[in-house]
Amino acid sequence: MSDPQTQAPEANKPAAELPPARILGIETSCDETAAAVVENGRLMLSNVIASQVDLHARYGGIFPEVASREHVRVIYPVIDQALQDAHLDLAEIDAIAVTRGPGLPGSLVVGVNAAKGLALGGNKPLVGVNHLEAHIYSAWISEQSATGQARSNAAGKPTKPPKLPLVALIVSGGHTELVLITDHLKYMRLGGTLDDAAGEAFDKVARLLGLNYPGGPHIQMAAVGGEDHAYEFPRAWLRDSWDFSFSGLKTAVLRTVRSLEAETPAGGLRMRTVADLAASFQQAVVDVLTVKTVKAAEAFGGKAILVAGGVSANQALRKAIQSKAPCPVHLPPLSLCTDNAAMVAAAGYFRFALGQRDGLDIDVLPTWPLSEL
Ligand code: KG4
Ligand code: ZN
What we know:
This protein has two domains: 6-141 and 335-372, ATPase, nucleotide binding domain (Nucleotidyltransferase, domain 5); 166-331, Nucleotidyltransferase, domain 5 (2-Layer Sandwich), CATH 3.30.420.40. It contains ten helices and twelve strands. The chain has helices spanning 53-57, 64-85, 105-122, 131-137, 198-208, 215-223, 247-263, 271-299, 315-324, 342-353; strands at residues 6-7, 22-27, 32-39, 43-51, 95-101, 126-130, 166-171, 176-183, 186-192, 304-308, 329-330, 357-358. Strands 4-3-2-5-6 form a five-stranded mixed sheet, sandwiched between helices. α2 packs parallel to α3, α5 (198-208) packs across α6 (215-223) and α7 (247-263) runs antiparallel to α8 (271-299). The longest helix is centred in the last third of the chain and has 29 residues, at 271-299. The N and C termini lie close together (5 Å). Bound molecules: 5'-O-[(R)-(carboxyoxy)(hydroxy)phosphoryl]adenosine and zinc ion. Zinc ion (ZN) is lined by residues 131, 135, 172, 309, 339.
């Protein structure tokens, strides 16, 4: 994007020639306060996440003021812990990467200001990162780390970095984006949701079914033992486009729940019925996400498929894409699917190594689309 405070990264420098660097990443775009240290965009040295899920669960969703206050309370202890876990001082860090957006303004500002303070106090370069780009780079983090989780293939070897060009599906609570990545930091948006994000659909349907927030993991759990095709919910194929729509599906679940409740006025839904509804809903989402992503990879000659964001933790989606893909599929480890700062540090590494430097006057960008990068 054309931002006067930003020195843009250099285009087309081969990744193999990039200099080594240790990046401290900071993430506060939503309801996770996170800091992490990642070396060379792949080796995770630490990964600290203070989740606010329990605080927000009672509201059935995120309460922005509560989120912002909690970020302020824990941000510095979280950063200290990330440095301590990596056995590093701030002096041994090469740059500080922070999420500028998209996200909740009052949450973003806490991370961005903390990053500016550290950059100024420690005389370190500052690199602003887009949260969606960070989700994409979670799939690059794959080497054994000192304190983070090891990630390797069946032979015990570190997984290889994704090959480009690739097709990426980013599915989170706020976004559903299908993107062609032609080179590092180069994105062509193919499509996205026209209404609810995939994760948002999981959260709303969970509420309808009387399940807790965040809905995704609870729907996945409830679906175990349920019948995928007990209810034939609609799939919005939106032919001739790479877009998605989940609001019709959500309304169909709502209608079905209301009519089932009317049939059993004495009490709520039976557990078996909830399992069938959860499994049928999950299957409808998985079918559309899988078919469109696989078709896009075929249509655009993708050498790989990458799925990232909170919904990429969904086991049914992971299995379906892996079984249907015509090319290798890169999925972040479960711990890096939902919001974390290791992914911010990984994306920040590529931006830093390719020359991006941001001024201390950068602001948050709450609605920053990938297409403006
Ligand atoms: O990426 P993320 O942590 O935050 C955003 O950037 O939005 O994604 C959170 C979303 C929530 O909507 C949550 O319900 C969903 O990811 N999610 C899942 C699963 N785990 C988290 N959705 C489906 N299945 C899961 N296992
Ligand atoms: Zn996210």
